[in-house]
Design goal:
The structure is a homodimer of 311-residue chains. Chain A is built from ten helices and 13 strands. Chain A has 311 residues and is α/β, with parallel strands linked by helices. The first copy, chain A, folds into two domains: 202 residues, 3-Layer(aba) Sandwich (Rossmann fold), CATH 3.40.50.720; 88 residues, Alpha-Beta Complex (UDP-galactose 4-epimerase, domain 1). A seven-stranded parallel beta sheet of chain A has the order 3-2-1-4-5-6-11, with helices on both faces. A two-stranded parallel sheet of chain A has the order 7-10. In chain A, strands 8-13 form a two-stranded parallel sheet. In chain A, helix 3 packs across helix 4 and helix 8 packs across helix 10. The radius of gyration of chain A is 19 Å and the shape is globular. Chains A and B meet through helix 4 and helix 5 of A and helix 4 and helix 5 of B.
Chain lengths: 311, 311
């Protein structure tokens, strides 16, 4: 495969690049390094099979030139900041929706036919069915982030149908693991390193969430590209067969750090506007292709804390 | 009500403006007159309760200044050209998705809290359930137009949730009636006026479609604003309790014109890329509020032909 990875220097992107390179694929990474970290790509760069283009997905000309000659695009570049969406309402439109249109248009112009896209379980809004399957009832969006990812999914589907592409859409739960860079584990970790006696938790701590280990996620994405049915659009939920409460996760993090903080809660069912009080995805579809996660949620949380301790 | 109508000079917009003015509401219209026709607004202008702003929805500053002081936005401005989407793939992104974001952002800045949006049954893609309800299984988009309307819906929902607005989303079938300006009735009408002996039909003519009279649509929209439950997002399908085949409609048009053409077919289940072979919406939700259409599909088609004959 000649792969093109947007957001290559980020958490998921750099782990994907490493995996692809280790499997002998040629990879072009594309990252504006606004949140990505170039050091994440040191190993890949040393392999001789990787090259980084330092540019923005909003720069359609550079994107088009860069993607030419590749056969598969992994579009991971995104504003992944769900929580502060209402503070900068244009960011999701630009960095997710318009950016994805740019990626599709660059592909169309360059004759690239296959795209794998990192969507999110947030597109289900606040679903009524758990675990939530890919064909759950038509959802209502509760966050600008979810809305922009749904918009991106929709454009990928329309391009696949209209221009003979193949679109692979992966609706992730939150990912954990090496190079993890934002989310509740890092927030709790930092709080506890600074003040081991107390931990303030957004919402009532009873929000039920599912998490997936980044390496398990990457295995699922690559398996799907290999084994999914030959149709324009394939959609897969990616997550574990379990969920935890936010306060469970807080307890595991504290235990791994050897501290016993008092928990205080901001209160309310949601941690912030657009937070989903319960995320738990039905992953039967990807499991039917032969995938299963190797780490439990607790193992992923502990693994992530250990990674942060090594930094 | 102090109403703001984007796309005010268009088919649906100008009929809506007339209705609102006739009910005693103050109305500001907003239209760049790229496809809208100023003459459609002559009656409204004469009423003294209507004012037109000639500007583009992509001009956020003018939009923001213009919307201030209104309480309800009817966002109808759009690229409504489903059929040629793949010939200009940026148009739906710009004129539908980004334009809707602009409208929402202008409302947020101007403190306007209520929006009614003209979405489309096309957001169901090629559904498996007929008539298709609002909570049909999570669809896959088959056209750039449908994708851009879904993106718009999603942003409206997220703005409603995040900024305390109320969003009313109406998924229309195709509309017919006075000031109708594009679609199969006009195509067939023009063909038959020029060559009464033959009519060429895209697809196999067996595509099953539902149509709604524009006045019935407007009644439904205004009823929903008045009677819908007090929640951030309300979604309503709008259509009739019946469908016809494209060749039935062709027959009614020919009969009304008094001609007997030979039909020829391009063939295939779809008229064009992204055409849905079967559109038939479940309208129980709006009917539960007390609405029903006054014209059948055949009456709407005939009414539209008569309107075209009067031009």
């Amino acid at each position: 495969m000649k792969a093109f990875v947007t957001g290559a220097a980020g958490f998921i992107g750099s782990n994907l690049v490493d995996r692809l390179v280790s499997q002998g694929h040629d990879v072009i990474g594309y990252d504006n390094l606004s949140t990505g970290i170039e050091k994440n790509l040191d190993g890949a760069s040393a392999s001789g099979r990787f090259r980084l283009v330092r540019a923005d997905v909003l720069d359609l000309d550079t994107l088009t030139r860069s993607v030419e000659g590749c056969d598969t695009v992994f579009h991971l570049a995104a504003n992944a900041d769900v929580r502060f969406g209402t503070e900068h309402p244009r960011r999701d439109l630009e960095q997710n929706t318009i950016a994805t249109w740019n990626v599709l248009e660059a592909m169309r112009r360059g004759g690239v036919k296959r795209i794998a896209f990192s969507s999110t379980g947030s597109v289900y809004g606040e679903p009524e069915i758990f675990p939530t399957p890919e064909n759950a009832p038509f959802p209502i969006q509760t966050s600008l982030y979810g809305a922009s990812k749904l918009a991106s999914e929709a454009m990928i589907q329309a391009y696949a149908e209209g221009f003979g592409m193949r679109g692979f859409i992966f609706r992730f739960v939150s990912l954990l693991g090496e190079r993890y860079s934002h989310g509740h584990v890092i927030d709790f970790y930092r709080q506890l390193r600074e003040h081991p006696d107390g931990l303030h938790i957004l919402g009532d701590g009873r929000q039920r969430k599912s998490y997936l280990y980044v390496q398990d996620c990457i295995s699922a994405v690559l398996l799907a590209l290999d084994k999914a049915p030959d149709q324009p659009t394939n959609i897969f939920n990616l997550g574990t067969d379990e969920y935890c409460e936010v306060k469970d996760s807080a307890g595991w993090i504290a235990a791994r750090l050897g501290v016993s903080p008092e928990f205080t809660y901001a209160g309310g069912k949601r941690g912030w506007i657009g937070d989903s009080p319960f995320i738990f995805l039905d992953t039967s579809r990807i499991k039917a292709l032969g995938w299963k996660p190797t780490l439990t949620i607790r193992q992923s949380v502990e693994n992530t804390v250990e990674y942060l301790m090594r930094l």
